[in-house]
Amino acid sequence: MRLDLLAVDQWIDDNSRVLDLGCGDGVLLDHLRKVKKTNGLGIEIDVDNITACIAKGVDVVEQNIDNGLANFSNDSFDTVLLTQTLQAVHRPDFVLREMLRVGKESIITFPNFGHWQARLHLLMRGRMPVSKLMPYNWYDTPNIHFCTVADFESLCAAEGIQILHRTFEIDIHTGKKHASLLGKLFPNLFATHAIYHVTS
Amino acid sequence: MSGQKPKAATELESIVGSVGLVDPKIVHFDKPFIVSCGRELPSLDIVYETYGELNEQKSNTVLICHALSGDHHAAGYHSAADKKPGWWDNYIGPGKAIDTDQFYVVSLNNIGGCGGSTGPSSINPATGEPWGPDFPTVRVRDWVESQKWLADYLGIKQWAAVVGGSLGGMQAMRWALEYPDRVHHCVVIASALKLSAQNIAFNKTSRTAITSDPNFHDGRYYLKDTVPKQGLAVARMIGHITYLSDDVLGKKFGRELRSGTFDRGVESQLEFQIESYLHHQGEVFSEKFDANTYILMTRALDYFDLAREYGNDPVQAFSRAKCKFLVVSFTSDWRFSPKRSREIVNALIAAQKSVSYAEIDAPQGHDAFLLPVERYNDVFSAFMATVVQHCQPVISQDLTENISGSHRDAS
After folding, report:
1. Which of the 8 DSSP states describes residue B90?
2. Helix (H, G, I), strand (E, B), or coil: what is residue A97?
3. B267 pLDDT higher than 90
4. CATH fold of B196-303
5. Annotated active-site residue in B72, B333, B341, B367
């Protein structure tokens, strides 16, 4: 499983109620159900992912999170998750507010656009970065709102969102171990992925 | 349809995914059934079919709840001469979504129906004549109660799943509230917590078509040896239009003519394909369906309101349920629109119940729930496969822990 998903565990309480926005094939909710005995629900729009969730016995509701979570009442979940999806929503600020309305706490993971390789790519080639990390061209990418670690923290400050914990990864896919010293000291430059645990 | 030839018996057995030839059964309950309106039926006949094998624990059971015009014949064929299989054959059979290699499927004709179960055309023992319009007003909860009688008779303590589309979905939800310990999974397809005013209006128009047929005789047409065929046909035509989408009607029929011409200088009898199609549908239906049953069933639809007795709060209503839910809707269904299904889903979420929801992009309108639609089949099959896992004989606690332990290692 992706490292950012494994990192989520530590902030989830046993038997808590978890909402996963853009839950994909349900791998995280399935994992949390096994190790934390959570009562989970996923929100997804991809048809194959929805079937995959159902096949796993993971509860999933077909719904577009860009339209908000009006059908969910305040504080009805202990934790609301948004993993690798923040950059794909139309209004990240709106989605964040909705997450913290519906959940007591939220966990957000996203790729850091401020990583030195992305900066170098833009600086040297003058073109939008395309890499293993961000494999799409600018015109066909589902990732319409890339942000950096610094951008995210500035949004949190503006929205009055309290950061409970944060952690950074160098590579969530190949499994290179946890953030190096550089990553810890200068996450905006050296972290490929950020994982934030926040509350309102 | 009309182009299909009758199949030979051997051919039937070999149709992939068909349960083959099936025989309806009948059970007679010689005790009074108290209807929710307060009146009583002195005895009850229930006609039903079963598909698949009942396991030793009687835990692999699926109840099929039929909709307005359905009956007990949900899958397979009654004879080799049948042109069409049961009404939900697309989803019931070996290897299908409701896999009869895994499940023991029970499908019945609801009381008030015209498929052989006690209904308006049955004899009222008090008068020696058919009940007709005097048949008690039946509600969805009465169907659930009589289905419970059938479950008891078959020795089924808990349904692995109760499944229904449209009016059938209403029965499935009612089961989950009335007998929460007897339903493990509940599948609600193209249904609603209650009908909208527009929906009731369509039903009223259909009923008026029937009651204004001169052959209706206030519902006592059985004694006059006649049938309000015209009225019933019109009722079916109205229903049929609302079960299909504008798109599908346009694609299937467009403005094609079946007969006649628009050529100048020629005055001819014109008939659009859609006219001929509706006429045919009405005709076929009016020959096999009972007008009093149609009135009774549409009224049950109109009166249904899942939350009425729970302070009109669907969340409070669903808080009683203990089963896992699958809710499915179809984008082009305007009679039971996705919005109606989302009301069900939202109430279940608020009640903290286990629910999955899929909104299937399908052009066929309300009828999609009966038709082969790939994604619908995928979702339905995936869910029912998880139901199969729950049907397995109960294994010891230690073993269960070992299994979940190994999952942990794998992940």
Report:
1. T
2. helix
3. no
4. Rna Polymerase Sigma Factor; Chain: A (1.10.1740)
5. B333
